[in-house]
Write a structure and sequence with these properties.
The protein is an alpha/beta fold and about 600 residues long. Strand 13, helix 17 and strand 14 form a beta-alpha-beta unit. It is built from 24 helices and 23 strands. Helix 4 packs across helix 20. Strands 8, 9, 10, 11, 12, 13, 14 and 15 form an eight-stranded parallel β-sheet that branches. Strands 1-2-3-4-5-7-6 form a seven-stranded mixed β-sheet, sandwiched between helices. It is about 40% helix and about 20% strand.
Amino acid sequence: MNARRTFGWAGDVAHFLSTSQGDVLDALNEHAAQLFANVSANRLGIWQEAQRIAWKDELRVLSAALTAVTTQLSTAKSWGIALEYELPQQGGRRPDVILLVGSSVVILEFKMKSEPTLGDIDQLAGYLRDIEDYHTTARHASSTCGALVVTKGKKSRDQGGQKLLVPADLATYLLSCVTDGQIHIDALLDGRYEPAPGLLDAAIANWEFAPPQLKTVSSSNIPQAEACVRRVITEARSDPEGTRRLIFVSGTPGAGKTFVGLNLVHDLKVEGRMRFLSGNGPLVQVLNFALNQNQELVTAMHKYRDYFEKRTPAENVIVFDEAQRALDAEKMRIKFNRPNSEAHIMLDILTRTPNWGVMVLLVGNGQEIYNGEVGLSLWFDEIKRHFPSTTWHVHMSLEKLASSGHLRPEDSIHGLPSNVYVHDEPELHLNTSIRTHRAGHVHEWVNALLDGDIESSRNFADSAHSDGFVIYITRDLDVARSYLRDRFSGSPRARYGVLMASRNDRQFASSGIRAIDRTSVSHWYVDSKTSENSCTKMSTAATEFQCQGLELDFTIVCWADDITWQDETSKWKVRPVQTPPPILENPAQTRVNVYRVLLTRGRDGMVLY
């Protein structure tokens, strides 16, 4: 691995004050050149010249404040200081300054402005939240606090929940943060950073190293769900001939179902050959493109289905992501000229796995957006009608699947034939979102909003915002774009972009937004900011089909007139989705599900446009 330095400059305050400004600037410049190594020399040079001016301004203010502080408090010379410290696995995000003020962690962001933007304020809030939550040193500090230093400002104040300082007040603020004790700078630089996993980051960590140990994962019930899956697989290896097992892992959007599946197929402690399948074409395309793999990490379900329909598979364990999207018999007949449903074909393949077999079905909630998707009832109908000679053991969270509408009464313990045994495993329902930082209320907000429960949605939105997940509304797309550019200005690998419902191109064409085509999906998600194909250009939008199962740091969600609020009825007026045959069973609900997908893709927040 390339062990490049992950900070610009670090030491103690005495060392900082005795080091020439030119040497500090050179160190910052060298670090930035490594961080932006994929940027062309010309663009990098322009950026570095502008950044050098900002750094000089920052160092001038910081040096003056620390000189004043050490004059009043000699122990301040031993405070640790880090400039441009990169937050690991966070796309190059890095606070300007971290000071270890006694046993407190203080974060400073410098802006060479008279007034900060909303993006500047939220950028600081994001740094404070992430370092406090995910950095092992900060988690054990007396406090974590910070301020936005507006170097051309006229008066210090609080704004947007954050402290805004003018240079003259910085020394006083730092002295007010002093606590007993002292955290050494090495504790910060060597401390572990355990963030919420982005799907691509988690997949890369799995593929190249080992499943990442993440605080948000350990604080959810993912470890319990994974232990249950491993236990069932171990039990299956001793099953008598003619026995197969289904494991339904359910959860809210962003709860980590795909993360669980990817971890499983890379767990060397689990015996048996395994394969991860997904019917989500963009997910397969993006993951394999990001990892430079050829269908080795994630295999398109239809390719596996077609190849092994008449062949004996090598795998004992098949992980099927978004299993509720399996197509019914009518859709298979119309689209592929096949007599059986996708669930039927996959169950038949499972009966032919060598010696024993388990299928792990990862189940989303309320996100059926294709015609031909009928949910979990399809799987139960198939095992009841067409596989009477196989003994089936079905493991699932009965209560959660029933309450979410996935499970019909006739599919419960008492409604199945004698060759089907249902095992209630409550831990198989993932109950906490790990996609969004802190904000476990986001999916509840989305559900309440789309259900038309405005009072509840307001309360959930307030809770999410107080947790650091922001939701804004604008009718000016340029305002949204400007906000995101400000917020992620120093984050070269941050992912943000525009989402919109399919078939709404005409409404948003006047805003300069067009849907990306199928061949551009991987580049849209993975390419750097300098690429014209990158999502960060915010000139193209991913649709519900291209973003389901994937995520961005921040999203702009285009809300069209296909769902409009009616004051007279206090309900949404929904324009049903129109599709070619087979006709959707509930086209209005499908439209709502489209927005449920779009509203649950952002990890830090969203702007509704």
